[in-house]
From TrEMBL:
This is FAD-binding protein. NCBIfam families: PRK11445.1. PANTHER family: CONDITIONED MEDIUM FACTOR RECEPTOR 1 (PTHR42685:SF22), GERANYLGERANYL DIPHOSPHATE REDUCTASE (PTHR42685). It comes from the Bacteria.
Length: 364
């Protein structure tokens, strides 16, 4: 019997296990090979790996700093916004840390106290309520296993199986992302955000990573992501951006919440943190800060013990709900074509680029 069975060792699950692991008996499970125990397991988290200021702030609050080894080149100071439909372009100041996402997650796992039991290369299958807790079933190395737990935590991301078992009345819209990696010698020194209604009602992106580029795209579930990606590439080619010799493609689900009621702290002894709870920015899809924040708040709620934890956690989420509302209010200015065009054309909050129109590769 453990106190907390955490499904998912992304930033939400690993951070919760780290913070709650000294006080409670914790089992942290993930299908990924987060400690290098099984070289045959190549599952990774598909992510842009940009650490936004909010995430940096929470790391600071928790007394953590990121090791250099987790960073990749170059560090970025600007986002280039490309509205393909209207032809508008703008450059905005941003302060991201550019990360190797897999290394970031492994670093968080490396901070776990020895008291936390980990179970990697293992897949959560189901759970069943029993008096005082749950029986959780999972598969590891082909074997079916069971563990009893007092609380079950769903930290299993956008496609959360734990959340689906709760049959919540409202769920955020689901998007499918594709991310392609290309070799590149001249790296654009910014994160490029691409808006094009002919491709998606969300956005695409280009992010430099060491000597590679990531081209990513999020499309609503139900739309063919491959067709949309091909269209994006051809639209970029028209803008003079050619990406060739693809090295690899990865994919993932992504949530885009539309209402506060789609965000849930959990139900009936099952708690949700990170993207599984529906906590992610609906305007930028930035999710690492929300994963860290929700797990920090749940760890605080657990400090007073297990009884009543759901209501303490739910109560502490009020500022985060307000924050999500703020991001939703910002969304029309980014995604409503006329409003976006007007904002970009006005130059409001934009930087004045030295080279105009922006050039890539940048002249040295
Ligand atoms: C393409 C893409 C790009 C993104 N770029 C950024 C970015 O640049 N910056 C940013 O801040 N956010 C970004 N996000 C959002 C961000 O990645 C997520 O919001 C964040 O990772 C959520 O953290 P989490 O811990 O809640 O879930 P996750 O990081 O998704 O972790 C969930 C974990 O659960 C495990 N898991 C899931 N199901 C099971 C199961 N059945 N059994 C065992 N293990 C399971 C997974 O292996 C995973 O390790 C991006 C998302 C996508 C899809």
């Amino acid at each position: 019997m453990v106190d907390l069975f955490i499904v998912g060792a992304g930033p939400a699950g690993a951070n919760l296990a780290r913070l709650a692991g000294e006080r409670h008996q914790v089992l942290l499970l993930d299908q990924r090979d987060l400690r290098g125990e099984n070289p045959l397991n190549r599952k990774t988290k598909c992510c842009g790996g940009l650490l936004a200021p909010d995430a940096q702030k929470i790391l600071g609050e928790m007394g953590l700093g990121i090791p250099r080894d987790v960073l990749v080149d170059p560090q970025l100071f600007a986002v280039r916004t490309l509205d393909v439909s209207s032809g508008e372009e703008a450059l905005y100041q941003r302060h991201y840390y550019n990360l190797d996402r897999e290394k970031f997650d492994r670093w968080l796992v490396s901070l776990l106290p020895p008291s936390v039991k980990t179970c990697f290369n293992a897949v959560y299958l189901s759970h069943e309520a029993i008096p005082g807790g749950f029986i959780v079933r999972y598969r590891q190395k082909g074997e079916l296993k069971e563990v009893k737990t007092r609380l079950l935590i769903g930290a299993d991301g956008a496609f959360s199986k734990v959340r689906r078992t709760l049959a919540l009345p409202q769920n955020p819209s689901s998007y499918v992302c594709i991310q392609e990696e290309y070799p590149a010698e001249d790296l654009p020194p910014y994160f490029t955000a691409i808006f094009d209604l002919a491709v998606t009602d969300f956005y695409g992106w280009i992010i430099p990573k060491d000597n590679h580029l990531l081209l990513g795209l999020a499309v609503p579930q139900g739309k063919d992501p491959w067709e949309a990606m091909e269209k994006l590439r051809s639209r970029l080619a028209l803008k003079g951006i050619f990406l060739q010799k693809k090295i690899r493609t990865e994919g993932a689900h992504l949530l885009r919440p539309q209402k506060n009621s789609q965000f849930s702290p959990g139900k009936d002894g099952v708690l949700l943190v990170g993207e599984a709870s529906g906590a992610i920015s609906p305007s930028s899809a930035e999710g690492i800060s929300y994963a860290l924040r929700t797990s920090l708040l749940l760890a605080k709620a657990l400090e007073e013990g297990i009884p009543g934890v759901l209501s303490r956690y739910a109560k502490s989420l009020f500022p985060l709900r307000r924050n999500l509302l703020g991001k939703r209010l910002k969304s029309p200015f980014m995604y409503q074509p006329r409003l976006r065009k007007a904002v970009m054309a006005s130059g409001l909050l934009a930087m004045k680029p030295f080279h105009s129109p922006l050039l890539w590769p940048c002249p040295r």
